[in-house]
Write a structure and sequence with these properties.
Elements lengths: L6 H29 L4 H21 L3 H6 L1 H18 L1 E3 L2 E7 L2 E3 L1 H19 L2 H25 L4 H17 L4 H21 L1 H16 L9 H11 L26 H34 L3 H25 L18 H26 L3 E4 L5 H7 L3 E4 L13 H22 L4 E3 L5 H10 L4 E5 L6 H6 L5 E4 L14 E3 L13 H7 L8 E5 L6 H14 L6 E5 L2 H14 L3 E4 L5 H7 L2 E4 L3 H10 L3 E3 L9 H10 L5 E2 L7 H13 L1 H14 L4 H9 L2 E2 L2 E2 L13
Parallel strand pairs: 4-5, 6-7, 7-8, 8-9, 10-11, 10-13, 11-12, 13-14, 14-15
Antiparallel strand pairs: 1-2, 2-3, 16-17
Helix pairs in contact: 1-2, 1-11, 1-13, 2-13, 4-5, 5-6, 5-7, 5-12, 5-13, 6-7, 6-8, 7-8, 7-12, 10-11, 11-12, 11-13, 12-13, 15-16, 18-21, 19-20, 19-24, 22-25
Length: 717
């Protein structure tokens, strides 16, 4: 087995060892008073810690594929145990949270919170919120987790239910859910929390006590504020170095739950500011290494799993520390790895073992990988890159919608997070060179490369460069262009190269006969391939169906229609009901077969699409996307139209009648099709990828080791 991040084993074991020591120090007096045995809590915690080590090492060797396969069953078992505990559970301190299993008491809530994270990672990998929208991508998983939270509330445990819900929302955000989609269920969760407070007077009393302390600095010393008052006394009396291990006074029955919920207060009293700081540093290091493993995971399941488990530990630690220091209402949440308890300790050590296992996969890939992609969980790269066998790391970035300014605050917050992530990724990977391709994901990575002094190469696909590439071009070592016209937008000219857009090598490998059979289309009949990009385009889909109706029975033609997910069912049903000559698909993974089958293409005019059309020499009717930045798609299209390589229909002029007329005219004039094809091929730059790779290979160890080839820089051909 490859060696993973050993900090993910060392830190939880060190925190657990510290916890055993502090449990003994804080519980000896209580053990004598209640059980006539000062070692009562120590012996039990030692046994649980030993079992926890076994659990940690077992999970560290667990194959993630097996964990992924049983994820729904884990949640089902946890839900069943929660149901049982509500009915026949053991009651203590006014709550029914435990199941008696001989000498051991199990708290199913701890199993449920870990199982919920595993399940969410499993679900979100298969149903990315960015692709499946509000209903299936957000509401469906939240409904399942909400049911689990409801069972936890019945015990009642408001704080545990709230943190589980918050963990779920955070994972959905990491998976790429839109903030607007999260707003509605977040509001529902807030209403549920208010209702829970109103229906549980003791919890409302704690909130009122906290509000009084926060607003007026007043604590009910003899009533509901007793725990908080004694906790603050313990922390305040510790000073810089503390009273010494075992020398604390608040554990002499002044501070209730000193060995569980308020163990941090005893630690601060006995070990002082220095000891408390070292504890916080240990927890922070663990959270850092956990998020590092999450960020470096190549597959969505381990990435989301590691992120969720790490954030959950962080939320529990934050809540416990906030309660102990008077920054949150008093509630019964343990300090991870440190507080007395069996179920919580086992759950946290199991999570640590899983995190280590995720890091093993990361380290194993690093030994083989020379290329690392950086992308967003919301984009197609989150699926396409891992499927291609490459490693990808994710940023929490968002675009700035030009017509929805009210979303900008959320985009600013997400991109601020993404900037720190980019600095961390570039700092950890220490790449020989960074290649930026523009866009809101590329921006933070390029800035990190500049700040950390790594060589930067840019590749601009469009005739009008994007803002990110224009801005970073002044710092870049080289800028590769696809259109000669783009040179005018850059102040520096000495590092510009016109190399074209790279085209996937298999694009040219399609066979027409094989393609027609793959799409179940007739040979000898003209074929039109219609698509609006990977996500589809409703305007083009509507016009395509109207064109099929207009040409049906008049022109012998068949269609391949890629609709995108949103329009697929509607378009498929329309084609079937009306008997239209088309093969309808939501997305094409083997697009080279569609190009091979096509006599004519109807599509948008994104730069990469134009590069593929030119490489294949496929005649095209271009419908530029009207809302592209700086209207660059229309400018892209004019580059081909002016060379006689395509026909242009503006989006505002697109109708089924107009499109049918153009299709019929071109299919009837085979000479026109051949001219379009020949002119398109003159636009192709089939060596673009090779030339860009050649530039990248000149850099090693963060500097150029080979000079540019003669005539490369500033080259226009």
């Amino acid at each position: 087995m490859n060696r993973g991040d050993r900090w993910l084993l060392v830190l939880p074991l060190a925190l657990t060892a510290l916890g055993v020591v502090m449990v003994y120090s804080s519980s000896a007096i209580l053990g004598i008073t209640r059980y006539h045995d000062p070692d009562y809590f120590l012996t039990r915690q030692l046994g649980r810690a030993a079992l926890g080590v076994v659990v940690l090492l077992t999970c560290a060797k667990l194959r993630l594929s097996r964990l992924e396969a049983v994820a729904p069953w884990l949640l089902g078992v946890a839900t069943g145990l929660l149901t049982v505990v509500v009915v026949v559970g053991h009651a203590a301190n006014g709550a029914v949270r435990w199941l008696r299993l001989g000498f051991f008491s199990l708290q199913p809530t701890d199993l449920a919170r870990v199982s919920a994270i595993v399940f969410l990672a499993w679900w979100l990998k298969r149903n990315p919120p960015a692709e499946h929208g509000l209903a299936r991508g957000v509401l469906a998983p939240l409904a399942l987790i909400g049911a689990v939270c409801g069972l936890i509330l019945l015990q009642p445990t408001l704080s545990s239910a709230a943190l589980l819900g918050l963990s779920a929302f955070t994972m959905l955000f990491l998976a790429g859910a839109r903030l607007t989609h999260l707003a509605m269920p977040l509001g529902g969760g807030f209403v549920a929390a208010v209702v829970a407070l109103v229906t549980h007077p003791y919890q409302m009393k704690r909130v009122q006590t906290f509000a009084g302390f926060l607003g007026h600095g007043v604590v009910d010393h003899q009533g509901s504020g007793w725990q908080l008052d004694q906790s603050l006394i313990a922390i305040g009396s510790g000073g810089w170095l503390g009273r010494g291990l075992g020398g604390g006074l608040q554990k002499y029955l002044f501070l209730p739950e000193a060995h569980t919920d308020f163990i941090f207060s005893i630690l601060a009293e006995e070990l002082g500011f220095l000891g408390a700081t070292l504890l916080l540093v240990g927890i922070a290091l663990y959270l850092w290494r956990g998020m590092r493993a999450a960020a470096r995971a190549a597959d969505p399941f381990p990435a989301l799993l590691a992120g969720g488990l790490t954030l959950q530990v962080g939320l529990y630690a934050l809540a416990n520390l906030a309660v102990a220091t008077g920054l949150a209402p008093t509630t019964g949440l343990p300090l991870p790895f440190v507080s007395y308890g069996g179920s919580a300790l086992l759950a946290n050590l199991a999570a640590a073992g899983i995190l280590y296992r995720v890091s093993v996969g990361v380290e194993g890939r690093e030994a083989r990988a020379g290329l690392v992609f950086v992308g967003s969980t919301r984009g197609l790269e989150s699926q396409a890159v891992p499927e291609s066998g490459f490693r990808i790391r994710y940023l929490s970035t968002r675009s700035f919608p030009r017509r929805a300014w009210w979303r900008w605050p959320a985009a600013i917050a997400a991109n601020a997070i993404g900037m720190f992530q980019a600095l961390w990724i570039v700092g950890q990977e220490r790449p020989d060179v960074v290649l930026g391709t523009g866009g809101y994901v590329s921006g933070p990575v390029c800035l990190a490369a500049v700040l950390l002094r790594r060589p930067l190469i840019l590749q601009e696909q469009n005739s009008i460069p994007g803002l990110a590439n224009r801005w970073f071009a002044r710092f870049a070592d080289e800028v590769h262009l696809s259109f000669t016209e783009a040179r005018a937008y850059f102040a520096r000219k000495d590092h510009l190269r016109v190399t074209g857009n790279p085209v996937r090598s298999h694009i040219l490998g399609g066979d027409r006969g094989t393609a027609l059979r793959a799409f179940d289309l007739a040979e000898g009949r003209p074929t039109v391939f219609v698509f609006g990009g990977s996500l589809g385009a409703h305007r083009i889909n509507e016009a395509a169906l109207e064109t099929m109706r207009a040409l049906k029975g008049r022109v012998e033609v068949q269609f391949i229609l890629q609709t995108g997910r949103d329009d697929f069912e509607w378009a498929r049903r329309t084609v079937e009901e009306e008997g239209l000559p088309a093969k309808v698909m939501p997305f094409l993974r083997q697009i080279h077969l569609a190009y091979a089958a096509a006599d004519l293409v109807v599509c948008r005019s994104g730069a990469m699409t134009l590069a593929e059309i030119a490489a294949c020499g496929t005649p095209a009717i271009l419908v530029p996307y009207p809302y592209a930045a700086h209207n660059h798609q229309e400018v892209n299209a004019h580059n081909l139209v002016e060379r006689g390589a395509a026909v242009l229909i503006l989006d505002r002029e697109l109708t089924g009648e107009r499109l049918a007329r153009e299709v019929a005219h071109l299919l009837a004039d085979r000479q026109a099709l051949r001219r379009l094809s020949a002119h398109a091929r003159t636009f192709a730059r089939l060596d673009a990828a090779e030339r860009i790779v050649h530039s990248l290979e000149r850099y090693e160890g963060g500097r150029r080791v080979a000079p540019a080839a003669s005539g490369d820089v500033g080259e226009e051909g």
